[in-house]
Amino acid sequence: MKLRALAAGETQAERPGGNGDPVDELAGLYARAGQDGFGWKMYLDLRNAGWDYHSFDPVASEQIPWDSVISRYREVTLPAGMEQWHAPGFDPAKAGWKTGKSPFGQYNGKVPDRPFMKCTEACVGPTCYAATKINTLWEKEVLLMRGNFDVPAIRDGHRYRIMVNDGNHPGAGGGHIIYINGKPLIETKTCAGRGSSDQPKGAFITKEFFDDFRAGKVTIAVKTFIRYNDKFLAGPTEQIPQGRISLHIEEMRLPPMGDDLVAKSAAAVPMLSSDWQALQDPEIAEIDPEVGKFRWDGKFVQNPTLSGSWKLVGEVAEIAEFDPEKPRKARNPLLSALTFGEDGKTADPYWQWSGDLLMDLTRYQALRVEPHSIGGQDYLFIEAGGFGSRNKPGWKPLLLVMARE
Fold first, then answer.
1. β-pair partners for 378
2. Does the N terminus or the C terminus of the chain have fewer Cβ atoms within 10 A?
3. Which conformational region is residue 215 in: left (phi greater than 0), alpha (psi within -120 to 50 degrees), or beta?
4. Are 383 and 399 in contact (CB under 8 A)?
5. Helix, strand, coil content of the chain in percent (nearest 5)
6. Residue 210 has what DSSP assignment?
């Protein structure tokens, strides 16, 4: 289940938490009920921390024109002797690195004295921190930074995320890779995209890194790239190098996740749906990703045609193509069987229904259900989900076909 996987640190994301994250939505549900204390809080503040760092330009054969790409993150040859720059045993002083305090930044070759890349003076937290004062000049295209930090003991019943403070607006950031004790935590190859405003950027501290943090000291290393614009889709228009970065780590006390509360979240968490999908266009960066989401009012609408038990028999792209004699096998279906019970319940608390909608509370998507009688047999055609902002205009989900038992 997505909710429990997120809570257990089993799921990674470039946007760790925020809108659309079921655990964060549950915390918001508790907050609206008057039970605070489940939101994100500072765990390790590295925004003005001291780092070892090295900045360099790629070798000539790996350099690219300033106006040829949007984000410049790519594989480049590291300077001699720096191949293990991210490993705990690497000696930055011996390799000729400098020391400096974050944030690191540059605008047209200098430390900027004003916000840039769509940030304003208001971008000093708690969502975007990219207007805070830059402490150290980021000299050349590639920036390597690393530090050894004492960390508080991580606690059971909490989850953790590392935040990248290079701008949370569409077009901000130049891509990055983060290492924990020499192991890659997250690689983000592009700038912030559509729907990124006020969304966290970075990575969850997933369970394979828990022991690293329990040791009390971690080596954190980051590689990132300067860029020449603040656009998400359009290419650079001015030869002005720019970039900034700092980090911090946050902690969240997990809200209780009993089945009853998961069920109640159906009325609190907006869901993806085919109506939402119809509004999406990957070529339009300005679309608000929250517009068009399904919001259940919490009222159950009876639908006798759905009541009872059903089993999966196949999948189709359109209802008209379904052949009961030769059903097409479903690949990785969401469901193999389902019983529509009373008051919108099913045997699984993560599936609820009302009227002609089936609500998937593992992925928070509302799936339209259409009953049909074919050859004397009752069938349900249920949207198979898969909604997403990267789907092309006109994309529609497949339909799962279920027969009444």
1. 373
2. C
3. alpha
4. yes
5. 10, 30, 60
6. H
What kind and span of H or E run contains 4?
Answer: helix 2-7
Give tens-digit pLDDT for 184-234. Answer: 999 999 887 766 667 889 999 999 999 999 999 999 999 999 999 888 777
Q: Closest Cα partner for 327 from 338, 316, 319, 318?
A: 316
Give the pair of three-digit tokens for residue 116. Answer: 């840039």
Provide CB contacts within 8 A for 297, sequence distance 6+: 267
Residues 66-81: pLDDT tens digits? 999 888 999 999 999 9
Summarised one tens digit per residue, pLDDT across range 376-401 is: 999 999 999 999 888 888 999 999 99
The conformation of residue 271, written as its DSSP 8-state character, comes to B
Residue 119 and residue 141: Cα distance in Å, rounded?
21
Per residue in 97-110, pLDDT (tens digit) is 999 999 999 999 99
**C-alpha closest to that of 351 among 389, 400, 315:** 400
Residue carrying structure tokens 């266009």:
281
- Tokens 């655990």 belong to residue: 23
What would the two tokens of residue 174 be? Answer: 């130049």
- Pair type for strands 176-180 and 217-225: antiparallel
- For the residues 352-358, what does the mean pLDDT come to? 95
User: Would you state the structure tokens that stand for residue 157, as one six-digit string?
Assistant: 């019943």
Separation of alpha carbons 26 and 127, rounded Å: 19
Contact 351, 361 (CB under 8 A): yes
Shortest CA distance to 149 belongs to which of 202, 95, 102? 102
Confidence (pLDDT) at 195: 66
What is the enclosing helix (H) or strand (E) of 403? strand 399-404
Confidence of residue 285 (pLDDT cuts 50, 70, 90): low
Phi, psi of 149 (to 5 degrees): -125, 140
Q: Which two tokens stand for residue 313?
A: 């028999």
Residue 344's CB: how many other CB atoms inside 10 A? 23
Identify the burial level of 191 via C-beta atoms within 10 angstroms of its C-beta, where 0-12 means exposed, 13-18 middle and 19 or more buried: buried
| Residue 118 and residue 171 in contact, taking contact as beta carbons nearer than 8 Å | yes
Express each pLDDT in 307-344 by its tens digit.
Answer: 999 999 999 999 999 999 999 999 889 899 999 998 89
Q: Is the pLDDT of residue 16 over 60?
A: yes
Q: Which two tokens stand for residue 317?
A: 């792209």
Which of 49, 53, 105 lies closest to 82 in space, CA to CA? 53
